[in-house]
Each structure stands twice: as C-alpha cells, then as structure tokens.
Here is the input.
Amino acid sequence: MINMGEIKLVGYLMVAVLFLSIILMPLVEMFFVFQEQLLLGDALYNSCRAAAGGGYTGAGNAETGFNYANMRNVDAVLREEAFIEAFAETFAVSFGLEYVERDEYLLKFEPLASNIANNHFTVDLKFELKKSADYTAQDDYTEITATATSPYRFKIGYMQFINKNADINYELKSKREFTMKVMN
Here is the structure.
C-alpha cells in the first residue's frame, strides 16, 4: 500500500525535475550557440588564410591573393577577385554550403540539398589598403574584415517551441579581421 508521504515525495521529485529542465535547457542551448560561434569564426579565419595563399589551399599556389607586381615593391596589394573566389570556395566547403550569389562584396551561401542542418549564410567582405604606421617602412598592407551572419536554428525541442511561438529571430554573427603583409 502506498502512503501519502511517498506520493508527496514523487510529486516533489517530478516538480524538481521539470523545474530543473526548464532552467537547464536554455543553458545547454547557450553551449550550442557558443560552439557554432566558434566554428563560424574559425571558418572565416581559415577561409581568409586559404584565399591569401601561402600554401593553405593545398594547390601549390603560393600567394593566391597577392598582386605580384606590388610584391616586388614590398606592398601587399590584394587581388580582390582571386581572393573572393578562393574565400567563397573554402567557406562553402567548411560548412557544406553552395556559393550561390555575389553582390560586389556580399557573398551568399545556401545549404546543399544533402545537408539541410545548415542555414543560409551571408558574408560581407571589406578590403582596406593601409599605409604602414612605421615611419621607416615604405610598404602598404591590406586589411580584410570578414563578417558572417546566419539565422540560428535552435537544437532543443523546448527552445524550438519557444522560438516559434515567441517569434524570436536569433542570428549568429561573427567578425574576423585579417592583415595581409609581405614579409622581408
């Protein structure tokens, strides 16, 4: 026979489990968001490195993004078209995406049909040719800023329910800066 004390204990345990799950689910989702932020930042950085060259693409093309005529003058002037194409190819591969559209410096990516877990990504590239701050150096260098944005898909069912019903539009955003210099 079950007594009232056991029923109360089971009831308290159920309430405690429900309460803890409501508190812990957003914390677990925050872990997933942080993980995806790290992956996005790494993809941006690695894509910039691959587009800059230096053998990172594995194709043996030592300096994909540099303009060789300016390298002789010790200036790191960027070949923007070559850089953008190499960047887009590397970024698409890193997330299993397809490079679909380019509007000047704004690149758009969509997930492959076989990889529906990913979202659409937009990458905004900015290039700025700068003069060296060192008064003894005569070289120019290029500073690249890559900013990627993507709508975030919640992983946990409870958070998906809240997102759907509260009409929350959470967006992942990562920004990386990359400097291209010619070293002597």
User: Anything to note?
Assistant: Residues 54-63 have pLDDT under 50 and may be disordered. Residues 4-52 form the longest helix (49 residues).
